[in-house]
Model the fold of this input.
Amino acid sequence: MQEAVLAATLQWPVEGVPDNPRGWLVTVASRRLVDQVRSDHARRERESTTAAEVPPGDVPDTDDTLLLLFLCCHPSLTAASQVALTLRAVGGLTTAEIARAFLVPEPTMAARISRAKQRIRAAGSGFRLPEAQPEREERLRVVLHVLYLIFNEGYTATSGNGLHRADLATEAIRLARLVHTQLPDDPEVTGLLALMLLTHARRDARTTETGDLVPLADQDRTKWDRRLIEEGTTLAKTSLAGPALGPYQLQAAIAATHADATTADETNWAQVHALYLILERIAPNPMVTLNRAIALAEKSGPEAGLALLSTLDDDTRMAGHHRLLSARAHLLEKTGDSTAAYEHYRLAAKATASIAEQRHLEARAAKLKR
Done:
């Protein structure tokens, strides 16, 4: 996500934000956004076991690990190298384990990690935190983004038979806890940890016993980990109490809104949409727009969601992306256009390397052919 430049073009109140939204999330988020615009210094964007096995009290209070995280996330490295080196040096995973997680041969991963180390040496980086505050802020942004990538790969694997890799998700949470222990007052660090906990709380409900994907609307919410949800919600509230507003804080607020609903029908979609609208304005990204389209469809009907999705058709980053295809299929199905929905489900299934997602999308297509 690129840094947002709001300036005077932002109209307030934000279109789509209810005057009296249920709950605290939009109210607090909106206030933080107004504060940022008025003060004209919007912050840079920051980018199976369960997380309960790594409770806050068990996180080691060690500056050395944080230093190592900063070193592994050196800006001279590619994102793939940053992730691999972080998992190897900080997470303690073996090269073979990392290779299996990302479905590449072990020699390939070993070479990637080796090159990353050589590049850091060539850059002359010592084992120390950057001294200048702007450089520290930038490096922290990279650290958070790397942890976000590790968690996302663990939560929904981009390829392979299984939907998720609990070991990667749990390791990302452990490292996020460690960073939060060292930087408890940073709102984006707090927001990222909250987002991970609130999302990971749903893990046991996301698949059937045979490993088939269960959409959010169909999940048995009694399987959600309420302890993680309570902790994540508290952290999300804390993160929004600061003077600035960032992407992880907003994503945590969205996750908290979903967690607050005891059934899918009780989801406050107006609030979810409003939060995505704010997120889209401070950190524009096609995936944010896609998610906003889904929320808009729930709030205002599938036709409205499809109209918003159409704005992504010319975005080269989304060309042929399975998430855009599957979202369109879902909304087309809601309009009653079974033929078009069937075609898009089939296209989406072919476009993803995740076997679990393929099975789910093919099953949705087959259902429309009955």
Observations:
- The chain is about 60% helix and 0% strand.
- The chain has two domains: 7-284, 299-370.
- Residues 1-22, 37-62 have pLDDT under 50 and may be disordered.
